[in-house]
């Protein structure tokens, strides 16, 4: 049975009137047909996922309630959340699509529609879409080999094997590099040889500037030469430890990108697509400066962009999009190519609902095989949450707060900092927090915890610096994740102010932070070689100990007072 959207809504209305539960098999079948019956279009198709962060199993993932756009970025994609986003993309509140793209009524909607993602379910969707699009190329935007206990303990091998079975053709990277240069090169030389192309035009050796990876590949899709250009995360040695990739330089590299596009066209490419891990705002600026790119399939900022943004430049227009995170979406970009150029396109960002897509048997077997040696450790129940636990958002999340609370108590600190990472699955109220859940928030190759004495003026400098990375007017100066999460201390933030003036009213226990006084500050994930050499307790051990002690958690979220944001549509 195949239903149009109108027919599907009619079926739902009739079913509801007759008392049919909306999570029943018939209702779910209607959802499946409405979401996944995607008519083929054109003669060139690219399938895109990004930022899965090693989530092989279905999970819950709450979208942000705060994603502020400042200056020229205010009110524009991707800085729309909640009802503002639904209005912009024409999606009805309360629908299954509304749950996919927003945080609205998250707990109730998650209970109704179930978990998202999971590579076995993604594999089923990839096969389904490819069946109607012969020759379609599957691209992976990176942040794939990091983000789970099994990925950490297998040195990324579980994800490498899963991506090969999924049928990934081309990928680029970011957190992949935190496994170290030698491991990245080993995977490319052994596992990917003749199967997967790893591309990154903006990574070169620090000595002679030689390319480290292929800048691009040309794939024939239905007799149309399509160039896929790689753009790895430009600020890898800043956002992550530089000692992990000591001989490689990164950067945005607009001039090199332009030269690469020209070279690909000269070698016969009729379509040029950039597979990027810049982040959406950086991609939008790049699209306005570099000509000859038909589309940028982006990652890094975890934005579920339902409709591509068309950006004008001196050579024409470039489509820019981003395919979310956590295995939650599969982007499908169809081009009609005629007379040697793109004449039309269609795009759909498909949410991967595990209740609507049966698990692929071969992929599930591979996942089970990789997980089996670690099941005892992964399944340990540490505590129970009374609150919705999530991470995503500009300033703080309840799972971040849980980590901050653990740092404060276990380190006997006055203030705690936790990085503004965007990865990590959500947990619903009443769920047990297992070691596996904790690892989805903390699994990384530099997990060291710290306790440092800092002056009050140093604390302000740190907050100002991180805030500028997030809210600088120029996207090319935005160098990382969201705002550092802060525990113990309160402060106010004016995102639209200039650097040095955004952070104010810093207090601890109701008293102003003294610029000249020293405070005990706990943290984790330091990027310095000194922290690595100290080899302190990994954060997951510290938080696990805390959870075993408290047994039940309900974090009281500590967020800054926001100044000057008004009715910003990046705020629910």
How would you state the average pLDDT, rounded? 94
Oligomer: single chain
Strand order of the largest sheet: 4-3-2-1-13-14
Class computed from helices, strands and strand pairing? alpha/beta
Largest sheet entry: 6 strands, mixed
By DSSP, the count of extended strands is: 25
The gross shape turns out to be globular
DSSP helical segment count: 19
Low-confidence stretches: 1-26
Rg measurement, Å: 23 Å
Strand percentage lies at 15-25%
End-to-end Cα distance, whole Å, is 38 Å
User: What helical percentage do the residues reach?
Assistant: 25-40%
Explained architecture:
This protein is α/β, with parallel strands linked by helices and 572 residues long. It is 32% helix and 21% strand. The chain has 19 helices and 25 strands. Strand 13 and strand 14 (341-351) form a beta hairpin. The protein is globular. It starts with a helix and ends in a 10-residue tail after the last strand. Residues 1-26 have low confidence and may be disordered.
Present the secondary structure layout.
Blueprint: H1 5-17, H2 25-36, E1 44-49, H3 82-89, H4 96-101, H5 106-113, H6 119-131, E2 137-140, H7 149-153, H8 157-166, E3 170-171, H9 181-191, E4 197-198, E5 204-205, E6 216-221, E7 224-231, H10 236-239, E8 248-249, H11 254-266, E9 271-276, H12 280-289, E10 295-298, E11 309-313, E12 316-322, E13 329-338, E14 341-351, H13 361-371, H14 375-378, E15 381-385, H15 398-410, E16 415-418, E17 432-434, H16 435-442, E18 449-455, H17 456-471, E19 485-487, E20 489-493, E21 503-508, E22 511-512, E23 518-524, H18 529-534, H19 539-550, E24 552-553, E25 561-562
Parallel strand pairs: 1-2, 2-3, 3-4, 7-9, 9-10, 10-12, 15-24, 16-23, 20-25
Antiparallel strand pairs: 1-13, 5-8, 6-7, 11-12, 13-14, 15-17, 16-19, 18-23, 20-21, 21-22
Helix pairs in contact: 1-2, 8-13, 15-19, 16-19
